[in-house]
Amino acid sequence: MTPADDEGSGESRRSIVKVQLDEKSFLRRRPEVEHEREVALYDLLEENMFVLKGEAPAAGPFHLKLALADDRLVFVVNDTDDRLCREITLGVKTFRMIIKDYFVVCESYYDAIKALSSQQIESIDMGRRALHNEGAVMLRERLSEHVELDAATSRRFFTLLCILHMRG
User: Fold this and answer.
1) What is the distance, to the nearest Å, from the Cα of residue 24 to the centroid of all Cα atoms in its chain?
2) Is 22 a domain residue?
3) Which of 160, 138, 112 is nearest to 16 (CA)?
4) Which residues pair with 144 in a beta bridge?
5) Do 146 and 52 contact (CB within 8 A), yes or no?
6) In a domain, 2, yes or no
7) DSSP state string for 100-166
8) pLDDT at 57
9) Residue 113's closest CA among 99, 100, 103, 123?
10) How far apart are CA 66 and CA 161, in angstroms?
């Protein structure tokens, strides 16, 4: 992804302007999943709130690398000159059940689109969104000591966590 044109504005100083996913060991994904990944990345770069907390936090804007390593979600936060500001690591074991449930509901949703009524599809989609929201809230809470996020940003991060979790 490319940096935003307006990296120096006050709003972008509290944001991510470039995102890179570590995708070197992935399985091939369904087109629907690839679409979700692209939408999450696009939306994240279009609008996000990302404020580092703690001692001497960097002001931003930030470049972010996301990876899964040894059952940990790793956020490598750099400034726009790609100097390291912070590395944040979260264990993903606490997310396993919600990710698993989310994947099951997503599969049901993608299958339902092909064969079920709009009312049935809507019911499955409501469940899918509820699980997604639950995962996003959990992720936001787990990151809260390191970074301040808004709800939309944490939702996009949860989408990306799920996609990173699909690696082979």
Assistant:
1) 17
2) yes
3) 160
4) none
5) yes
6) no
7) HHHHHHHHHHHHHHHHS-HHHHHHHHHHHHHHHHHHHHHHHHHHTTTEEE-HHHHHHHHHHHHHHTT
8) 77
9) 123
10) 8
Q: Would 145 be classed as within a structural domain?
A: yes
Which residues touch 124 (CB under 8 Å, ≥6 apart)?
105, 108, 109, 112, 116
Task: Answer for the pair 1, 138: CB distance below 8 angstroms, yes or no.
Answer: no
Tell me the whole-structure pTM to 2 decimals.
0.85
CB neighbour list of residue 40: distance below 8 Å, 6 or more residues apart: 156, 159, 160, 163
* CA separation for the pair 45, 127 (Å, rounded): 27
3 in a structural domain: no
Give the domain range for residue 66: 12-164
Q: Please tell me the total count of domains within the chain.
A: 1
Cα gap 104→81, rounded to integer Å = 40
Tokens of 135: 């995962």
Single-letter amino acid, residue 56: A
Walk along the chain (168 residues) in steps of 10 and give the mean pLDDT of each run: 43 84 68 85 95 84 92 94 95 94 90 91 93 97 96 95 76
